[in-house]
Amino acid sequence: MNDTSQSKLENDVVVLHVPDTATVMSCYKLSEKELSTIKNSYPQLKGVKLQNVLDQNIISGVVIKIGTSLIDLTLNGALHNLRQNLYESN
């Protein structure tokens, strides 16, 4: 491979950015043990630092944001999913 081909190849390679921090939104400050439990429950959080952010709109549960992905583990999210499943089954 000549230098021109190598240079073109290097310019065409896209490096995917893996976030090094994930945000865990909750209604109260989570303990280190709770954050550790969350981290160990989701493989996509391996090697990622968790940052806890308080959100008073959350009644129960947490929302995990990693990159552009959201994992909604809130009571409101569960009720929304239940409502959708009931409407889809009828």
Features:
90 residues, alpha+beta, 4-stranded mixed β-sheet, 3 helices, 39% helix, 27% strand, globular
What does this structure look like?
The chain has one domain. It has three helices and four strands; from the N terminus they run H-E-H-E-E-E-H. It has about 90 residues and is an alpha+beta fold.
Q: What percentage of residues falls in helices of 4 or more residues? A: 25-40%
Using only C-alpha atoms, the radius of gyration works out to 20 Å
Termini separation: 61 Å
Count of strand segments = 4
SS content category: alpha+beta
Q: What string, H for helix and E for strand, traces the elements in order?
A: HEHEEEH
Strand order of the largest sheet: 2-1-3-4
Shape: globular
Low-confidence stretches: 5-9
How would you sum up the major sheet? 4 strands, mixed
Percentage of residues in strands:
25-35%
List the helices and strands and how they pair.
Layout: H1 3-12, E1 21-26, H2 32-41, E2 49-54, E3 61-66, E4 69-74, H3 75-89
Summarize the structure.
By secondary structure, the protein is an alpha+beta fold. It is 39% helix and 27% strand. The protein has one domain.
